[in-house]
């Protein structure tokens, strides 16, 4: 019975982590700032790098910086975009987990859909007191980005 309970707990943890991964995309695409910030621990980090993890494109840490980041993020209808998470590989160790997944961002531009960027997410998550799994750290490894498009992050109101 103990083995069955362990297996069930692992499946429940993976399912809850997937819910966090999906909530991230749905909230950023809908402009639901509070829900997006709630995907992170209080001291959570969101970062991205293009050429080297030692040279981040940006890094925001803690609630105040996360709130400022998402407040200045684009949202539909200008431009319409969809953040997709693909093939997540989740490893749970008690109340901590790591996840590596592919990502892609689709957007509407010049009256057509296009692939804006793709890469991999490197996530560290923690199960918190309320039972929710949140990102302790989410790092986007950008492997390809379409040039010449309007800014996405910090882009609202910018050309």
Structure description:
- The chain has helices at about 1-30, 35, 60-70, and strands at about 40-50, 55-60, 80-95, 95-110, 110-125, 135-145.
- The protein has a single domain, classed as Nuclear Transport Factor 2, Chain: A (Roll).
- The model has no long low-confidence stretch (mean pLDDT about 90).
- It is α+β, with helices and mostly antiparallel strands.
- It contains three helices and six strands; from the N terminus they run H-H-E-E-H-E-E-E-E.
Topology:
Elements: H1 2-30, H2 33-37, E1 40-49, E2 56-61, H3 62-71, E3 81-93, E4 96-109, E5 112-127, E6 133-145
Parallel strand pairs: 1-6
Antiparallel strand pairs: 1-2, 3-4, 4-5, 5-6
What is the compact description of this entry?
The protein has 159 residues and is an alpha+beta fold. It contains three helices and six strands.
Keyword list:
single chain; 159 residues; alpha+beta; Nuclear Transport Factor 2, Chain: A; six-stranded mixed β-sheet; 3 helices; 6 strands; 45% strand
Number of extended strands: 6
Parts with pLDDT < 50 across at least 5 consecutive residues: none
| Structural class computed from helices and strand pairing | alpha+beta
Question: Fraction of residues in helices?
Answer: 25-40%
**Biggest sheet statistics:** 6 strands, mixed
CATH topology: Nuclear Transport Factor 2, Chain: A
Rg for CA atoms: 16 Å
Mean pLDDT: 91
The spatial strand order of the largest sheet comes to: 2-1-6-5-4-3
């Amino acid at each position: 019975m103990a083995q069955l309970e362990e297996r069930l707990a692992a499946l429940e943890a993976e399912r809850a982590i997937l819910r966090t991964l999906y909530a991230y995309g749905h909230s950023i695409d809908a402009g639901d700032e509070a829900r997006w910030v709630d995907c992170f621990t209080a001291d959570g980090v969101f970062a991205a790098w293009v050429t080297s993890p030692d040279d981040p494109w940006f890094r925001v840490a803690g609630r105040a910086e996360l709130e400022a980041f998402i407040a200045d993020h684009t949202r539909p209808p200008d431009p319409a975009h969809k953040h997709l998470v693909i093939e997540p590989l989740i490893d749970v160790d008690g109340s901590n987990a790591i996840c590596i997944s592919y990502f892609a961002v689709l957007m509407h531009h010049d009256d057509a859909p296009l692939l804006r960027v793709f890469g991999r997410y490197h996530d560290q998550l923690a199960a918190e007191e309320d039972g929710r799994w949140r990102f302790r750290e989410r790092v986007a490894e950008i492997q390809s980005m379409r040039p010449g498009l309007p800014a996405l992050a910090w882009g609202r109101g910018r050309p």
